[in-house]
Structures are given as structure tokens and as C-alpha cells.
Amino acid sequence: MSVLLPNSLSLSPRLKLLLTFFRSDPAVRPIDEWQLRNSLLRFLSLPPLSLSVPDDDLLLKKRSDLHKRKRDEPVATGTLYVRELGFLKKKKYGDCGDEWKRFAEWREGVVTTLEGLELNLEGVGFEMRVEVPEGDDFEKTKRSWEDFQPPGNRDYLRGSAWRPDTIIVQGLPSRWFAEPRVSSKPSMLVSHTIFSALGKIRKLNVAADDDLGKKGDETGGEIVSGIQCKIWVQFETYDDFSDAMKVMCGRSLQKEGSRLKVDYEVTWDRNGFLKNVQQGLRSSHTQKRDDRVPAVAGNIRNETRSYRSEVLHSDSSRQSKRFRVCSI
After folding, report:
1. Neighbour-count burial for 302-317, b at 16+ CB within 10 Å, e otherwise
2. What is the pLDDT of residues 242-254, one digit of tens each?
3. Rounded to two decimals, what is the model's pTM?
4. Name one Pfam family in it (predicted).
5. Cβ atoms within 10 Å, residue 146
6. Which ranges of the chain does DSSP label H, i.e. alpha helix?
7. If one looks up domain 161-272+307-317 in CATH, what number appears?
């Protein structure tokens, strides 16, 4: 099922698998990416999977220093996307829970079929391992925060349940979160409008996605700084946080009129980023006031605007917008 968001955006379900390839024989011949790709696509197109996967949705990268690797280390990695899920569409009316249950069962079957798959490329054997990333599996993500023990959390030590409230989404196109005809940089207000469809927001922060740029440099990719952004969204309640994580997991972001499908990364905040930013800003402002003569009212208002430009607080009294759900 697709989820409709403000600003002509939508979240479409898709399957994402992380692939790792190992040598299954002592051969030392270099790996042929083209042969590996064609062999895997051919296997996916045949029963029992019968999946039609475009070339662009199978990303493979061989290890650059094969001569230095140990025998038990992988020779290549990859990512597989399956976006055409129309065959999972229900024939009868019912609730969306049944639809997601059927998707989860189908995904488990795909993983079982591909796990340990042996490929033979002109006499060279490979074994493939398959994993669903945590950000695509809500149940796995939920277990990760239920098992998490926040350091120094007094409530947790007294036995009270600690529950997160902030999601982190990175790899988002900055222009989709910008004010049209005003700037190409992501806007706090536009971002707030979009994510408020998932629940009531307490705080929100937007920044350039420098982490993704570093990943591009490490892998030899060409990621231009400023094109993508990273957004922290703190919700007022745990239930809104949990519902938002469930909606964001396992989906791609699309915009009406664009063929681009954005495979963002979503996780939850383990480090209390927004809380630390707020404390840091308050400490900085306190220090500035101590170092200056008493400020007039106009200076105080200017400082307030500067603070809000980095961390946006939401008015809890506002009625939150809700997203619309469509069939796959």
C-alpha cells in the first residue's frame, strides 16, 4: 500500500535486500560483474520467484583489493530492489494489516530462496548471502530499541521503560523539501508540513546529509554536497513515533511528476541529538549574555529567531494532518 503525503509526495512499498558474495572454491580469477549480474537476474526471472527486476535495481560492486582479502572475506557486495509488487494486491476488501502480513511472508520466502544461493560463472563458484536491512524491517527495528539500554538513564535504572521518540531520515532530496521558487535548500516549515502527516511533532531539525557524502567518497560514488538532506523528527508521543517508523520502513519516496524513486535510510535516535542541540544552544546563549552588557528586548527576540532556525518547536495545540493510504 502507498502512503500519500503533503507536497505531492508519496511513500511506495518495495523490497530491499543486501547481498554479499563469497568464493565457494579456491579459484583466484577476478570476478566478472557483468556475468554475475546477468546470472542473478536470470535466476530471479525464473520460478519460483518470477521477478522482473530492471538493471538499475540491482547494484553490484566488487571488492577493489581482492589480492589482499582473506579467504573467508567477501569478493563483492550488492543491493537488490524489487519495486513492482502489484501481484500482492488483494482481490478482496479487508484491512491493511492483512496486506502487510502477506508482504512479510512473501519477503521471508524470497530471502529463504536466495540465501546460500550458489552461482557458477565459467567454472568459478560463488555463494550469496542475503540480509534485509534493519531500516526495512519494522519488527527488527522495534526489537533494536526495545533491547537498547541508554547509558546513564535514571528512569531505566529504576525499572521504568525507556522509549524513543525521534526518527532520523537521511538521503532525502533537498529540493523536495524546499520552498518552491524561493530556495533549493530544505525548508524547516516544508519539512514540518510533510512529516506532521505522520503524527504530532515536538521538534524538528534539518541539515545537509554529510554522512551520505562520506559514504559516496568511500565507495567512489559521485554525491554532490547539498543535494540531499538529513532530518530529525521528534514526536510528542511514543505511539506517533512508532507509527511513523512503521510507515517509513520498507518504502521509497516519490514525487508526483518525477520518475525518481528515493531509497532513503531511516533509523531512530539513540543519542538524543535534538536534546543535546537544545542544551548546547541554551548554554551558548547563556554564555553570550554573560559576556555582554544586559541585552535589550530587540536582541533577545533576534536570539530567539536564531534558535528556531536550527531546531523547530511544534505547537502541540495544532491539529495534525493524517496521511492517506492507497493499495499497492
Report:
1. ebeeebeeebbebeee
2. 999 999 999 999 9
3. 0.79
4. RBD_AKAP-17A
5. 11
6. 33-45, 96-114, 138-146, 154-157, 188-195, 210-219, 238-248, 273-291, 297-308
7. 3.30.70.330
